[in-house]
Amino acid sequence: MQHRQGTLAFDAAFQLTEPWTVLFGPSGSGKTTILRAIAGLMRPAEGRIVLGSAAALFDSAEGIDIPAYRRGVRLAAQVATLFPKMTVRANVAYGVPSGSEGIVDEALRRFRLEGLAEAVPWKLSGGERQRVAVVRAAASAATLAGGGLLLLDEPFAGLDLQLRDELLEELRSWLAAMKVPVLSVTHDVGEAFQLGAEVIRLSDGKILRQGPVGVVLVEERERLMEQLSRGVR
Amino acid sequence: MDFEALWLTLRLAASTTAILLVFALPLAWWIASGRGTGRAVVQALVALPLVLPPTVLGFYLLVMLGPLTAPGRVLTRIFGHSLAFSFSGLLVGSILYSLPFAVQPLVAGFGSVDRGYIEASAGLGASPWRTFWSVVMPLTRGSLLTSAVLAFTHTVGEFGVVLMIGGNIPGATQTLSISLYDQVQDFNYSAANRTALVLVVISLASLILIYSRRDSGIGRGEIV
Questions:
Q1: Cα-flanking dihedrals φ and ψ of residue B157, to 5°?
Q2: Closest alpha carbon to A131 in A147, A144, A114
Q3: Any chain A CB within 8 A of the CB of B115?
Q4: Which helix (H) or strand (E) holds A122?
Q5: What CATH number has the domain bearing residue B179?
Q6: How many folded domains does chain B comprise?
Q7: Considering only CB atoms, which chain A residues are within 8 Å of B139?
Q8: Overall CATH class of domain A2-232
Q9: What SS3 class is residue B28?
Q10: Which residue of B125, B134, B139 is in closest CB contact with A69?
Q11: How far apart, in whole angstroms, are the C-alpha atoms of residue A19 and residue A5?
């Protein structure tokens, strides 16, 4: 998949082989752009995006570009954009088809949002808004027939570490139970270790390495240590 | 007080507003959701009645709707009578003349909706249709109200276009503003005073309705 937007150009070819895969890299490495391209919110210049065994979501050579709402992909963006005229419950229920409302109550309970269910977004703190946005996308993804894919851009990034770790663990176990595959983005090594069975390391729009978190990020740590020691010398 | 003219004026304004909103919503959404020469041309055409003398628009409509042109002959065949000097003709003229007052508040309202809401909705699997009605419209209710009230009020106050296209036929095409003109011509100032007062009350009440809503867009530079 190739994309040009100003000076940004990236070349990313990867396959998701684990239930939870983490895109890891520094700011500006193209992580968010990849998520947006998969979600159908931006059009790559060239490339092919295939989800599971289904037909391509995007194929520049074939002229295929399935609209975002028909891709079977759900996205929680880094900036939590809650619908301001809806309550927290209505926001979480937005992407849940009628007949599956039970999942809304379950999601609110699991992520400690029951007490805020009838609150309107402007009354929430930044961290609460972010939590609702992630839960909203997760609840919607959990109702997708045949798996689908959940894309999370720096989930819970604004929360304190302890709460973030607890919520990530809750999210990981819930989505695993619901069999929802996830591709998430982070530049936090701790978060990648906590979540990722598989890590894709990006830099300057290119994939440097893909593999188990223990291998890829240990290599990264060693590389950084070596750079540091060279700098000290 | 000419109640026949008042009833005709209110009927014309209500019909014009209802029809305009049906067309203005998709047109404004289309204008607000992109750029390009095509959109600029359409936007200019929509705004044209704001700067064009009403008599010019009325003249062209009179010619076009009359029996001497191809469109006029087609419309005459469809409606069974010429649209010139009829209520239907007034309706066509009012719709075109009030079009910018219906479209522009909506364009401003749609344009002010954060793109993040639309992307969030698409990222949750909602179709553009659902996004429009469930996310965009609740955020632009004030603009919709402004659009409806301005279209209604502007139609109530029309003079040049309705005079050109409808003539001045009592009970058929004579609106309140034309009735006022007739009353002044007849030096019937007491009747003219009452008619003028009704027009002032309708206009003022409409504006109070708009300004009393915090999210109407007026005062925030959303309206042209």
A1: -90, 5
A2: A114
A3: no
A4: none
A5: 1.10.3720.10
A6: 1
A7: 84-85
A8: alpha beta
A9: helix
A10: B125
A11: 30
Six-digit token string for B143:
């603009």
Residue range(s) defining the domain that contains residue B132: 3-211
CB contact under 8 A, B122 and A40: yes
Q: Nearest Cβ partner of B124 from A67, A74, A84?
A: A74
Is B67 inside any structural domain?
A: yes
Q: Where are the domains of chain A?
A: 2-232
> In sequence order, what are the residues at sequence separation of 6 or more whose Cβ sits closer than 8 angstroms to the Cβ of residue B173?
B8, B85, B86, B87, B89, B90, B162, B166, B167
Q: Does residue B75 lie within any of the structural domains?
A: yes
Interface check for B133 against chain A (CB to CB < 8 A): the answer is no
- B152 CB-contact burial (10 Å; exposed 0-12 / middle 13-18 / buried 19+): buried
In chain B, residues with a C-beta closer than 8 Å to the C-beta of A140 are: 124-125
Tokens 């954060």 belong to B114
For residue B134, the chain A residues in CB contact (below 8 A) are: 83, 94
ipTM score of complex:
0.86
Grouped pLDDT means (10 residues each) for chain B, 224 residues: 87 96 95 86 94 90 85 83 85 93 96 94 95 95 93 92 85 88 92 93 89 58 36
